[in-house]
Amino acid sequence: MSTTPSLKTLYVEQITPALITSRGYKNKHDVPKIVKVVLNTGISAEADKNQIADIQRDLALIAGQKPVLTKAKKAISNFKLRQGQVVGCCVTLRGRNMWEFLYRLLAVALPTIRDFRGVSPKLDGNGNYNIGITDFTIFPEITVENVKKTMGLDITIVTSASTDAEGRELLQLLGMPFRRTEPAKTVAA
């Protein structure tokens, strides 16, 4: 029998009551929650089938489920792009896989970045958060010796929050290491 992911347990037992008291929600169903996490990476037009398979394998290791290849909708000659050519790889995580990935991202991957000072506290205006990672080898599932070409990774965390403040507070309570914004220094005249 499987156990509940530790981050989800934290959300249910501690974060939900904290948000109810701080925001004054009427019941637990009003509290914002994480809906899904989307992982996306681009693939260059010159990539061969082996490189595409490697990228798909690496993203599957990071996400814990099989990714989907995305293809070009239109041909663009300036980019040497043909219609139907593979241009990316993406995974949508929900449920258990989502909670386990978030835990690995927050507790393992982000703290291993050298000179890490936190992520930007800016959300998209609807309570959702996007983060770009330039090197996917920060995840422990990836062995650096097997990587032929490094890839970037876009991570979108979709919440049910209606405002950025609600979404930011939810992510902060989950452990998102937001960068501290320092107030502007005033110069005396």
List the main descriptive attributes of the protein structure presented here.
5 strands; five-stranded antiparallel sheet; 189 residues; alpha+beta
Unreliable stretches covering 5 or more consecutive residues: none
- Strands of the largest sheet, in order across it? 2-3-1-5-4
Shape: elongated
> Total number of helical segments?
4
> Rg from C-alpha positions?
19 Å
How are helices and strands ordered from N to C? Answer: HEHEEHEEH
Q: How many individual β-strands?
A: 5
Q: Give me the CATH superfamily.
A: Ribosomal protein L5
Question: How would you describe the overall organization of this protein?
Answer:
The structure is a single chain. 31% of the residues lie in helices and 17% in strands. The protein is α+β, with helices and mostly antiparallel strands. It has a single domain, classed as Ribosomal protein L5 (50s Ribosomal Protein L5, Chain: A, 2-Layer Sandwich). A 5-stranded antiparallel β-sheet has the order 2-3-1-5-4. The chain starts with 5 loop residues before the first helix and ends in a 15-residue tail after the last helix. The model has no long low-confidence stretch (mean pLDDT 84).
Secondary structure layout:
Layout: H1 6-23, E1 34-42, H2 49-63, E2 68-71, E3 86-93, H3 95-109, E4 129-133, E5 153-159, H4 164-174
Antiparallel strand pairs: 1-3, 1-5, 2-3, 4-5
